[in-house]
Design goal:
about 80 residues
Length: about 80
């Protein structure tokens, strides 16, 4: 949370003060984050096509639904709050 706030303040303060260094740092980090998201999306798409990820997810969801609200399967019923 602190890192996110600091990152956003860097962009905001750079824009308010018209500080070129802060704006370049903000733009660079933002560009890297976008590139990482694109790379992650492409790799997950390749993984999904190669291993029939949709079928695996569907099977896991159906097996989880069978255990919903059963004793001993609290992870399925309550879930984990992050």
């Amino acid at each position: 949370m602190m890192l996110k706030t600091t990152f956003l303040r860097t962009g905001l303060m750079g824009a308010i003060q018209e500080n070129r260094c802060l704006l370049i740092a903000f733009s660079t980090v933002l560009g890297l984050l976008i590139c990482m998201e694109i790379a992650l999306g492409v790799s997950l798409l390749a993984l999904a096509k190669g291993r029939n990820l949709g079928l695996v997810v569907n099977q896991k969801m159906l097996s989880s639904m069978k255990h919903y609200e059963r004793e001993g399967h609290d992870g399925v019923t309550k879930g984990k709050i992050i």
